[in-house]
Amino acid sequence: MKWSFLAAIALTLSTGFLAEAFHPSESAAQTAEPTRIILAQASDWEPIARIDPDRPVQIRLVNRAGVPVEYGLTDNDAAPRQLASGATASISQVSAPAYMLINPMTTSVNLSYDITASNNVVNVEIRQIDNDLPGYSTFNIDWGGGIYVY
Question: Is 66 left (phi over 0), alpha (psi -120 to 50) or beta?
């Protein structure tokens, strides 16, 4: 009987200890600082347009920014080129992956791009936006044909 009484006390104490270990009290939960991991939502990295990466791509630029811009692919096959305000330019036989840089020729101008793709032609309308907003400086076509703007 003595042992059963001690066993009952030991069981009660250990159960309370285990319950606390697996279900901490409210005060313990409030004092512990939670670890937060912030992940990008799937929609944050979805492409804005797509092309077929197995076929050559044509990039068509239309400068509606009101200022001249400089543009070029980062593959170093050609020097950066200038595009006057209101002008259009095309680059043919581009293969994925490809990165295109587009920058204003004047300071304190921020750019935005409206990009669409159809039949492996990527149409890029370059526009000027409010200087209080961050602008774009590049877009890329990835290995899978997705087009992303940065």
Answer: left
| Gap between the Cα atoms of 135 and 125, Å rounded | 14
pLDDT digits (tens, 9 = 90+) for 68-109: 999 999 997 889 999 999 999 999 999 999 999 999 998 888
pTM: 0.69
What single-letter amino acid sits at 44? D
Of the candidates 82, 87, 137, 80, the one whose C-alpha atom is nearest the C-alpha of residue 109 is 137
Distance CA 31, CA 102 (A): 50
- DSSP summary character for residue 41: -
DSSP class per residue in 67-126: S-EEEEETTSSS--EEE-TT-EEEEEEE-SSEEEEEEESSSS-EEEEEEEEETTEEEEEE
β-pairing, 146-149 with 110-118? unpaired
